[in-house]
Every structure is written in C-alpha cells, then in structure tokens.
Amino acid sequence: MKLTAKGFGSARLRAGETDKVFFDDDIPGFGLRVRAGGSRGWIFQYSIGTKQRRMSLGSATPESFKSIRDVDGRVKLGIREQAAHLHARVKLGEDPAGEKTESRKRAGDTFEAIAKKFLAAKKAANRPGTYEEIERHVLKHAKPLHGLQTAKISRRDVAEMLGTVRTNSGPVAANRVRSTLSDFFGWAMSEGIEGIEANPVAGTTKTKETGRERVLKEFELRLIWKHAGDDDHGTILKLMMLTGQRADEIANLSRFEIAKVEVQKKRGEDGAPDQPALEIDVIDLPGERTKNKRPHLVPLSAAAKALLDARPQRANTDGSLREFVFGIGQGGFSGWSRCKERLDERIEKDLGRPLEHWRPHDLRRTMSTKMGDDLDVLPHVVEAILNHVSSLQSGKRGVGGVYNKALYLRERVVALNRWAQHLAAIVSENVVSLREAAS
C-alpha cells in the first residue's frame, strides 16, 4: 500500500495479530507500525551488511505528512520526505540509525559533564590553591560553554566567552581562563573523548600582560582588616598581612607546622655585647608546601601567634582532631571567591564606593614594599621573609647562593615584629587588641 495522509488509516490488524508493519510501495524501508493496543508509529527499516536496522520516526498522524517551519525558521520535512531522504543516505552507504545512536551518546558529552572528570583529575594533581583557581575558571568563567557538546565547541564559542571574561574580569583573568581551557581540551583529546580532534582555544586572542604592581594604601589595609572578620577567611587574610606568606600556604596550614625553634646566640660586633639565644614561635613549612619547594621558617609576631591561638580545634567525624587549622572536611580552607565577594560588599557599604580591585596576593607585595620604604628593612631580609631565594636582592642568587646559606632568622624576627607594630598603628582605629599584642 502507499502510505499517504488519506490512505494510512486503512491499515488494520487481522484477527490474532498483535503487531504488524505495513510497508510503503514506493519508498523502500518506509513503514507504518500498528500495535494491538492502538498505537501507530512511523518506522524506517534497512540493512547494513548482515545487520538489520530499524528507526522510529514518531507517531503516525495526518499532520506528520506536512512540512512545517519552527520558531527558529528551521523546516521539518513531512514524513514521506524524511523517509525518502533516509533511503537516499542508505544508498550512499550511510548508517542513519547508527549515527543517531552515536549522536545521542555524544549529546551526553557536554562541556559540563566532561569538565567534572577533568576537575577530578586536576584535584588529584595540583595544590589546593592552584586547583581552586582551575575550578573557578571552569565552573564560573566557562559557564556559557556548559550546555554545549564538547566536540562541537568552536573557536568562535571560546573567543566570545573569553571576550566576556576580559570585559568583566580583566585581561589577566581572560588569559588565565584561556590557559585552563587549552589544558582542558588537550586533556580531553589525550583521554580519547569522542569527536574532539582539535583544540578550539588555538588561535584565540591572548592579551599582552604587564606585571602587577598593586600596593595597597593604608586606608585600604585598614578597611580590609576592619571588615575581614574573625572567621577562617578573615583570619587567613590577617595572617597574610602580618607574615607576607602566600594564600595557599596559610589556608592549608597544619597544626603540626606551628612550632617553636631556637635562634642561635649571635656574637656582638665592634665590642657590642653578644645577643643571647632565644626561642621563637614559627610556622615551619616543608618543601612540598612552598612554591620553590624549599623548607621555610616564618617567625610569628605576638599578634600573629594570638590569631592562631584563637582558632578552635575542630574534630573529624571520628572524634580525632583535624590536622588543618582552617577549613572543613578533608582539606584546608576553600571558597575564596565567595568570601571575598562578601568582604568587598561590606567594604563598599562602609566606603560608599567599591574598593579598587585587589586580590589577596597584593597583601604580600604591600608588606614587602612597606618594609623597605617605611621600616628600612634590608632587602635580603625581606626576601628571606618572602622565601625568594633566587631573587637578586636575596643575596643567594647565582654564585652567592652557593656560599650564602644564612637564614637571617634573627633579623626576620626583628623585621616581622617591627612590621606588626607598624600594621597595628595603621589599623589601630579599629583594632586596639592587635596593637597591644604586637607591642
């Protein structure tokens, strides 16, 4: 029979039949499937080698013979035209049913789905601070890509997304997101993710960067300290102000890294009396926790030690004490973005305008600058505090580094105590207890 809008309704099951396909006389493989329960549906059936394929083409209604245009202007062919098109593809050696199955499979390979696997791999291979930045790039900045099939993401998709990041967060952020995405697509290809044959990040614009020189003004330090609060995030920022250490080094601080060490006796120069040995409180960072992979001692001023002593000792689910000073769960503190947004909101409300863009690492640069400019701390002592052993100012670069093994520990103690007093004076309008602890 010929399956037409007027004639297909005459197809009926005989007594005892429960399921039958009525094939069209003109289009090979095009059929109407009728079931005893009353359902009727279009099918297309064909052979690929020795295998039989059958595709469902939807419910059989008179309207299915009409070609229609959807709201996006795309035309959906009538059922006979669809079947004729499928037959033509089979004659060319294609496998429409197999391609449809593969397409449906790939539809689940969205950027968001593949990104979860990528982040799991990166979490195991990176330090917490680095991982958090990668996670922010993928989950926040690359959100416009989440619903797209990974294999179909084009260079234009990536370029438009990076343009948005560049506008909203600046060129440096856009470059960092670009690097993360390039790493993502490279990883996806190495993992054999279907359909990804090239990296769409290649060829997109990379903005020229200049070194960041942001040094916070005193009123900015005061506002940050005032509104930081006493929670994990606020305490970490205050410790970064007092010690000049990196964000992830403080955020992932272990209680076992808070220690006491002895500063050796020092002979007086030019007839001056000897300086006796003394015991000091420090953060003792092992090499695997520092950027340059070198162990690092951070002398603690009284103010810094007071902040650490005030932290409650949290317990794990089994009742044992947590290793980490900050954060919850298995690791140290996370959630930088959310906490900083809230801090910036509090500062803006107090100041009456947003504070010029800043980031936690600026606290480190600010301490270093002010130690040299305001407190006359010698450059090699500042560099020792920052654990910059390869800088020219450290005195340990090149040949000098072979012979100069000095820790300058006593000088660092003096410098950090002096800085704590200076910082106390800066924020004393709001924080009297810091001045008292640092004196």
Automatic annotation (TrEMBL):
Annotated Tyr recombinase domain residues: 210-416
Residues covered by the Core-binding (CB) domain: 109-189
Pfam family, one: Phage_integrase
The entry's keywords: DNA integration, DNA recombination, DNA-binding
Keyword DNA-binding tagged: yes
Domain of life according to the entry: Bacteria
InterPro entries given in the database record: CB, DNA_brk_join_enz, Integrase-like_cat_sf, Integrase_catalytic, Integrase_DNA-bd_sf, Integrase_DNA_bind_dom, Integrase_recombinase_N, Phage_int_M
UniProt signal peptide: none
Family as reported in the entry's similarity comment: Belongs to the 'phage' integrase family.
Protein name per Swiss-Prot or TrEMBL: Tyrosine-type recombinase/integrase
Organism whose genome encodes this protein: Bradyrhizobium xenonodulans
